[in-house]
Amino acid sequence: MKSMRHKMAKFSDSIPLSTTIIPSPDKCDCNYHKDECIISWPVSSGKACKCNYKELWSCSGSIVFCDSSRPKCVNLDESQEACQLSKGDCGGYLINYYQNILFDQKKVK
Fold it and tell me: How far is CA 101 from the centre of its chain?
């Protein structure tokens, strides 16, 4: 094999530390919806998205761990149950629920 003038590392050589920040492939986000938050981008299995209300009608999401013995932790989605696993601000789901009930009652009358 022809040498390419590269120095081969020895067992005793130290490994240099990386200076590059690589973002996590996991992403989580929440949207502001009628005065509360709802999940807009769920995370991968074993984690949950914790919604937090921010000032000026906006919400953010942060990744937290979730109990993998709970079925919803394995198959996360944008549902209210998935949001509640993180114990974050999930009130946007309740507002939708009550609005749907009122809408259905108006249709019946």
Answer: 28
Tell whether pTM > 0.85: no
Give the tens place of pLDDT for each residue, 55-102: 788 999 999 988 878 888 887 888 888 888 888 998 888 765 545 544
State the burial class of residue 8 (Cβ atoms within 10 Å of its Cβ: 0-12, 13-18, 19+).
Answer: exposed
> How far is Cα 95 from Cα 86, in angstroms, rounded to an integer?
19
**Count of CB atoms situated within 10 Å of the CB of 78:** 15
* Cα–Cα distance, 29 to 59 (Å, whole number): 8
62 φ, ψ (degrees, to nearest 5): -130, 150
H/E stretch holding 97 reads: helix 91-108
